[in-house]
From TrEMBL, chain A:
GO terms for molecular function: sarcosine oxidase activity. This is Sarcosine oxidase subunit delta. Pfam families: SoxD. One of its GO terms (biological process) is tetrahydrofolate metabolic process.
TrEMBL record, chain B:
Belongs to the GcvT family. Residues 599-870 form the GCVT N-terminal domain. GO terms for molecular function: sarcosine oxidase activity. Residues 501-584 form the SoxA A3 domain. This is Sarcosine oxidase subunit alpha. It comes from Metarhizobium album.
Length: 92, 985
């Protein structure tokens, strides 16, 4: 795992300030979505090797949720963006 | 006397004599000595006993790879076991003790193991101590641990301080030898922030052990010149005594600095060790090379050491390892050792060269045995001569020390710690560092070069290369000429045949050549398997001397190149790091934060007993004189709250202020019950679900203004709920206009409970708090007498008439004091979390004992708090799935023991009468239990299958852990005031 994360709000910070929630590609289904869709959203997770987008929380910093795109094999971090911006883009 | 101090020479300060002791023997050394050099100067060749066979062992190296010379240093609580004498800086009053021997180093009972050695080969323990299985833990393991050991850990607390720090630089140079010094100089002159770290207490690395001339001066003078220039740059940090032990992601390096390990009585104003995390834009690995021992019979006899170590003791410390020294080598290093010894007038018994033809010259008069090999080292506690074989003929050589050289291995650990594998070079006969990119460049002998001049030039080149990768340029410093270099080439010689004694590969773990052979025969041929089977490379030295030899020997056994065998995985730490350094200041009471309520002082002066709940120290109960045990105090506190009035600190609840135009809509989406229409000035109990329909947390939410809410959470989930709300607001619904901030620490909150609560409260509050003016669930900002603004909530966890009063944290204690004073005529008493718990169990209110990650709102009797009308909220959609609506779900019930003397315990299981205890017959379990002072007997809350239909049923409470089994009656979970009349009085 990366030792340093470049928070878009706080700059380069040690990873101990962050906590990881998981897959950032999940989109909460609408209430009318099928059982299967909700089941997949709540219970089913991929476990990919390689490039991966995750939700990280800058818990001991700005307390913003971030989307960290990284390679979970090489540990390279490609980008860190604010999750709200990403979420708005999806909803738009 | 064989090993001895020369009359002059070396870099020790002969004007400063230092006294130290070894196994009680008082000895003298000089400032600048290591413990090892000082021991050798006193002819103390025997310094330890080996791990398994308890063989006598001496000093093998002059550096951090040392496998044998491990001693305990220090006295009392400062005793540190397994310290390498070769890197321990000598100080006045140092106390060293040898390890793993009994009764003494010279007469060690454990050495009888040597006689048993035919039975103690690799895998011996696995094969022998298998039956009976129960014996392993109780008999075999304790015995083996006692017999095979290192130093003993001290049981006293460490009196010293440690700390952690971050450092940032443009270029980190690891190692202050020829390559490292030139790299640092090149970058420093270009204005880069440079950190130069070296594990030694004197910077200079191998240059301090050499006799060459650099630009016409001695190597030590050359080192001083560069260091004084570096010290003049404010952007350069020199870090001696600092071992860079690990390379981590993003070019962050771990390092440990020994700040006061060389001082008998460390100052308490400074740490003894400092753990650094160094963030480096670029780094240069100038870590040097390790000389390999030769693997021959008796190569572990005290007095046998590497040629480079012999030269270091001679040239740097002015100590000759013997009076008549033999050399066994497969390359130029041995020849240079012979030349150095001869230059100091030491008799060289012979140079035995494994190669049939040598390419080097020896001074006149030194005998050279080409194509020979040592097959035995005579003597027991020290070298007493050699048996050398050449072309089938054996010959005895008279000597008192033996220097050996099996070639050189670049020290490449850092570059291999992040998964990259080293590669084998036939040309260098060594494993070389992989290309790990521009962030970390190997330089000098760490990159496979030999010769001081070559290393000086490479240091400059690698620094320029690092600068170039940062788009910076620099001028190359002049590299001085080096005179007196030797040819350090060597030919492979992995193992000397014909051994008449054990030929050790891993000295520290007593692994010899036969063990490696056994591992191959028994199917543990892969190098990683061989390591685990034989323990080769698993000692505290991590095989720094032995691993490459092990690979070479296995390659020879299989008839393949070492490239095909490879090496085992490199991992941090390069050398052992103390737990103290890793803990830093996080120890004892400082190992985690302590959270104290703003009412802590109030609770303390009222005699509270505190309990740790998470990070919080909460007032648990308030004993009074004459009370025997906590139960008596708690019963009194409960009854007093039910009949008079009690005051309880509830400041630890999580508190979140929520603002924004969409604040109500937001809360409506995260709670299962409705919040849109909550009027201003009212509080409402709320349930939060997880997305899978299970209850997450509960608490009250108050509407202070149209767009300002005040949310409380349970104490335990305060941080989690805040994080959850942030996720919902930022990720799920970023379009909502809502903001929140935690105010958990800003408010002191106290609960005033009991029929006389209003009487007491009215004396402190200006505003009218009558039932009409301030009804149940009213919330308002009020003014206290004296003018302080406060928040008043009429909410109740106990089932009594109750108020919660919140004041700014700093006023908490004064307001609590005022309430106690006002309540004195009404017999007010403080109560703690124990009484709080009893009160809520009597009332049937749930906590996380019941909201335990498996229950739905309906399970705990709060089904009406699940809004079917709201279109969407967290947890709504999956609440309707089959499993969560099943008829036989566990439901919240109350329990009363039929025999009123029986105490129900939380965790007990419930069974139908007559049913055998089993998972199939399990009907549920007890979640909360207490003695009810209001009812006068024990009661409990439980989760029971279809529980609400079973009120009145007799059920067996079965507690296997405590061996109890008795009958209880199922009843409503609300034991007192089922119509909640008290709340509205």
């Amino acid at each position: 795992m990366a030792s340093l994360i470049h928070c878009p709000h706080c700059g380069s910070r040690p990873k101990e300030e962050f906590s990881i929630r998981g897959d950032a590609s999940l989109v909460r289904p609408s209430p009318s979505a099928s059982d299967e869709e909700w089941h997949r959203y709540v219970h089913i997770r991929d476990n990919p090797k390689g490039r991966y987008k995750e939700h990280w929380h800058h818990a001991f910093g700005c307390r913003r949720w971030l989307v960290v795109e990284r390679d979970n094999f090489t540990h390279e971090v490609f980008s860190v963006t604010d999750a709200a911006e990403a979420a708005k883009a999806v909803q738009a | 006397m064989s090993a001895h101090r020369l009359s002059s020479g070396g870099l020790v300060d002969r004007s400063r004599s230092l006294g130290f002791s070894f196994d009680g023997l008082d000895l003298k050394g000089y400032e600048g000595d290591t413990l090892a050099s000082a021991l050798l100067a006193n002819d103390q060749l025997l310094v330890g006993r080996s791990f398994k066979y308890h063989r006598p062992r001496g000093i093998v190296t002059a550096g951090s790879a040392e496998p044998n010379a491990l001693v305990m240093i220090g006295k009392g609580a400062r005793t540190e076991p397994n310290t390498r004498a070769t890197v321990a800086e000598l100080y006045n009053g140092l106390v060293a003790t040898s390890q793993n021997r009994w009764p003494s180093l010279k007469y060690d009972i454990g050495s009888l193991n040597s006689l048993l050695s035919p039975f103690l080969g690799a895998g011996f323990y696995y094969k022998t101590f298998m039956w009976p299985a129960a014996f392993w833990e109780k008999v075999y393991e304790p015995f083996i641990r006692r017999a095979a050991g290192l130093g003993k850990a001290v049981m006293e607390a460490d009196p010293d301080r440690y700390e952690k720090a971050w450092a940032h630089c443009d270029l980190l140079v690891v190692g202050a030898g020829p390559a490292g010094l030139m790299a640092a100089l090149t970058a420093a002159r270009a204005g880069l922030r440079v950190i130069l770290a070296d594990e030694g207490f004197r910077l200079g690395g191998s240059l301090l052990s050499e006799r060459v001339s650099i630009g016409g001066t001695a190597p030590s003078t050359f080192v001083e010149t560069i260091l004084s220039e570096l010290a003049g740059f404010p952007w350069v940090t020199l870090m001696p005594r600092t071992t860079v032990f690990g390379w981590y992601d993003d070019n962050v390096f771990g390092a440990v600095e020994k700040v006061q390990k060389h001082i008998a009585l460390p100052s308490l104003d400074l740490p003894v060790e400092r753990l650094w995390r160094i963030v480096a834009r670029r780094a240069i690995m100038a870590t040097g090379a390790e000389e390999r021992p030769l693997v021959f019979g008796g190569n572990d006899r005290p007095g046998v050491m590497t040629a480079g170590a012999g030269r270091t003791y001679l040239n740097r410390y002015g100590v000759a390892v013997g009076r008549k020294v033999a050399v066994f080598t497969n390359g130029g290093s041995g020849y240079q050792a012979a030349r150095d010894l001869a230059a100091q007038g030491i008799d060289v018994a012979a140079v035995i060269d494994g190669r049939p033809a040598a390419g080097d010259n020896l001074p006149n008069g030194i005998r050279l045995i080409q194509g020979g090999g040592v097959v035995k080292v005579k003597g027991r506690h020290r070298v007493g001569g050699l048996l050398v074989e050449r072309s089938g003929f054996e010959e005895s050589i008279d000597c008192d020390a033996l220097l050996m050289s099996g070639g050189w291995s670049p020290i490449i650990h850092l570059a291999c710690q992040r998964g990259a594998k080293p590669y084998w070079s036939d040309e260098k006969q060594a494993f070389l560092a992989p290309d790990v990119g521009r962030q970390l460049l190997p330089a000098g002998s760490a990159s496979g070069l030999s010769g001081i001049g070559a290393c000086l030039r490479d240091g400059v080149a690698k620094a320029l290369s690092a600068l170039a990768s940062l788009d910076l340029t620099a001028t190359s410093p002049d590299v001085p000429d080096v005179e007196g270099e030797y040819d350090a080439s060597f030919a492979p010689l992995w193992y000397v045949p014909g051994a008449r004694d054990k030929a050790f590969v891993d000295f520290q773990n007593d692994v010899h050549v036969k063990d490696l052979g056994l591992a191959q025969r028994e199917g543990f041929g892969h190098i990683e398997h061989t390591k685990r089977y034989t323990t080769s490379g698993m000692a505290t030295d991590q095989g720094k001397l032995g691993n490459v030899n092990a690979t070479g020997i296995i390659a020879g056994m299989k008839g393949v190149s070492p490239a095909e065998i490879g090496v085992t995985t490199f991992r941090p730490f390069y050398t052992p790091v103390s737990f103290g350094a890793m803990a830093g200041t996080s120890r004892g009471e400082h190992s985690r934060p302590v959270r104290r309520s703003p009412l802590h002082g109030w609770a303390k002066k009222n005699g509270a007993v505190f309990v740790e709940a998470g990070l919080w120290h909460r007032s648990s109960w308030f004993p009074r004189d004459g009370e025997k045990g906590w139960r008596q105090s708690v019963d009194r506190e409960v009854m007093n709250a039910r009949t008079n009035v009690g005051l309880c600190d509830v400041s630890t609840l999580g508190k979140i202020e929520v603002f924004g135009n969409d604040a109500a809509e937001f809360l409506n989406r995260i709670y299962s019950n409705a919040f849109l229409k909550l009027p201003v000035g009212r509080a409402r109990y709320g349930l939060m679900l997880r997305e899978d329909g299970i209850v997450y947390d509960d608490g009250t939410t108050s509407r202070l203004a149209e767009n300002h809410f005040f949310v409380t959470t349970t104490t335990a989930y305060a941080a989690e709920v805040m994080t959850h709300m942030e996720y919902c607001a930022q990720v799920l619904w970023p379009d909502l206009d809502v903001r929140f901030v935690s105010s958990s620490d800003q408010w002191a909150q106290m609960s005033l409970v009991g029929p006389k609560a209003r009487l007491v409260l009215q004396q402190v509050v200006e505003d009218d708090v009558s039932n009409e003016a301030f009804p149940f669930l009213a919330v308002r900002e009020v003014t206290l007498k004296g003018g302080l603004r406060a928040r008043l909530f009429r909410i109740s966890f106990s089932g009594e008439l109750a108020y919660e009063l919140a004041v700014p944290a700093g006023y908490g204690e004064a307001v609590a004091d005022a309430l106690m004073e006002a309540g004195r005529p009404h017999d007010i008493c403080a109560y703690g979390v124990e009484a709080l718990n009893v009160l809520r169990i009597e009332k049937g209110h749930v906590t996380h004992n019941e909201l335990n990650g498996t229950t739905t709102p309906d399970d705990v009797g709060l089904g009406k708090m699940f809004s079917v009308n709201k279109p969407d909220f967290i947890g709504k959609r999956l609440s309707s799935r089959f499993g969560l609506t099943a008829a036989d779900r566990l439901q919240l019930v109350g329990l009363k023991p039929v025999d009123k003397a029986k105490e129900i315990k939380a965790g007990a299981h419930l069974l139908k009468e007559g049913a055998a205890p089993s998972m199939t017959n399990d009907q549920g379990h007890v979640t909360s239990a207490c003695f009810s002072p209001a009812l006068g007997h024990p009661i409990a809350l439980a989760l029971l299958k279809s529980g609400r239909e079973r009120f009145g049923e007799k059920i067996v409470v079965w507690d296997k852990l405590r061996g109890e089994e008795f009958v209880a009656e199922v009843c409503s979970p609300v034991f007192i005031d089922p119509d909640s009349q008290k709340l509205h009085q």
